[in-house]
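User: quick one, sequence for these tokens?
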């Protein structure tokens, strides 16, 4: 999308109001996905279920979220995005209430699926709505607002999750969502109505079936990699191959169909879109995968409690908070390329101390390192998301949103799984405490390698002003 206005102009006050109201709504699913993970062991004990079964509390949520994402694109084009957003928020609210009342592990998993459906529709709808309403103006600043939850959640989530699990019943984790959803619903009623782009657009059932199948198979296979410790297990190999086949068929279908497809794969011919998409996928290794390892490092090497580990991670969130505003403004002024490249280098520098860290490394040094790492993470995510929409027509916005949401989910799952597999491999090399430290050091080297690799696709991001 083109922006002909000066990058120094302030964000439209009406757009700012819409953004803040809608962003409040996504606090609930963003916080929920962070704090529920820390309660897996507690839920397992209280619902008398094995860890392997309880993991489906998280897996089912991710899968249902991914299935809902393609539907969101059609819903946003077909109906009023205000109604779609409010409906999705209600679904997530109901799922949270029911999850807090779950009587066994099976019912909890079902209610987490309901939550995932609501979240899967809500998140793309928020993004699509704001991009459409802005007309492509001030995308960097707009993405900074959209990223507010990712600023606060890394600080609040681990601390709140650790505190609740240590002091209160696990059901309280779902109570947290209820007041947020109620306030967000009341405020959402004040959102202006935005007319649908194509009120007669038919549902692309074939495309959604192929895309959902690809997502389910890939995420399921990738999640199994962590327990199977590799790709060669049939439980991993078959679903991943099935997912790849679905992707191939979807690409062929998208290129041949004369109807409106859920994702127009021709978008990947755009340099800014394809490079941004690759960066979003790799960011799963840099952010999600490393965030999976960091709390374990503090607990296993530094002998910290879950709450203390969460507090140790807070500086990373503070670092993100300090740079995101500036990153958004710089992206509006000079484009995404140099902002992303410099931010990636800063993130790598902030991760570097962890390849030498031991149980004797001073906490202050690690806190400062996480602050620097967070500053880098906060700086590259905004311009990447802004450049996704560079050159897209209004009718293509939902396509871009769906593609990037799916790539982020698969990238995050892949990053976590691959780093977990490598970690288990390094751990298996010896039983000593020193070997455990070395295993973590090596994982952080891998994280730095992915960070520096990301500079290559960043070279193809746009330089022009939005």
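Assistant:
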């Amino acid at each position: 999308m083109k922006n002909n206005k000066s990058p120094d102009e302030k964000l439209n006050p009406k757009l700012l109001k819409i953004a803040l109201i809608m962003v409040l709504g996504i606090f609930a699913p963003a916080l929920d996905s962070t704090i529920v993970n820390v309660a897996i062991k507690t839920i397992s004990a209280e619902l008398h279920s094995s860890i392997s079964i309880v993991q489906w509390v998280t897996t089912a949520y991710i899968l249902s979220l991914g299935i809902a994402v393609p539907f969101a694109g059609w819903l946003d084009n077909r109906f009023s995005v205000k109604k779609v957003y409010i409906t999705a928020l209600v679904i997530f609210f109901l799922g949270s209430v029911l999850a807090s009342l779950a009587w066994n592990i099976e019912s909890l998993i079902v209610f987490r699926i309901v939550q995932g459906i609501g979240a899967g529709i809500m998140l793309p709808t928020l993004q699509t709505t704001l991009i459409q309403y802005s007309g492509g103006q001030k995308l960097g600043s707009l993405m900074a607002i959209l990223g507010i939850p990712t600023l606060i959640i890394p600080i609040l989530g681990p601390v709140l999750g650790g505190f609740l699990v240590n002091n209160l019943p696990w059901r309280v984790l779902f109570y947290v969502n209820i007041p947020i959803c109620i306030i967000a619903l009341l405020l959402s009623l004040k959102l202006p109505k935005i007319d649908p782009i194509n009120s007669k657009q038919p549902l692309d059932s074939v495309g959604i079936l192929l895309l959902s199948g690809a997502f389910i198979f890939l995420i399921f296979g990738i999640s199994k990699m962590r327990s199977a410790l590799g790709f060669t297990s049939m439980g991993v190999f078959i679903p991943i191959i099935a997912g790849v086949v679905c992707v191939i068929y979807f690409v062929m279908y998208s290129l041949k169909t004369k109807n409106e497809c859920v994702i127009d794969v021709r978008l990947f011919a755009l340099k800014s879109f394809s490079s941004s998409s690759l960066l979003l996928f790799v960011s799963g290794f840099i952010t999600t995968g490393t965030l999976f390892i960091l709390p374990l490092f503090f607990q296993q090497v530094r002998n910290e409690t879950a709450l203390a580990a969460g507090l140790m991670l807070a500086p990373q969130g503070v670092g993100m908070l300090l740079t995101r505003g500036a990153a958004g403004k710089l992206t509006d002024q000079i484009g995404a390329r140099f902002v992303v490249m410099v931010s990636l280098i800063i993130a790598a520098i902030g991760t570097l101390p962890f390849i030498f860290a031991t149980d004797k490394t001073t906490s202050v040094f690690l806190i400062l390192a996480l602050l620097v790492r967070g500053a880098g993470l906060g700086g590259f995510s905004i311009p990447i998301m802004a450049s996704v929409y560079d050159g897209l027509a209004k009718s293509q916005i939902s396509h871009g949103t769906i593609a990037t949401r799916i790539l982020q989910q698969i990238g995050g799952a892949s990053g976590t799984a691959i780093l977990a597999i490598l970690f288990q491999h390094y751990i298996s090399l010896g039983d000593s405490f020193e070997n455990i430290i070395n295993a973590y050091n090596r994982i952080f080297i891998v994280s730095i390698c992915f960070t520096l690799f990301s500079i290559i696709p960043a070279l193809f991001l746009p330089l022009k002003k939005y």
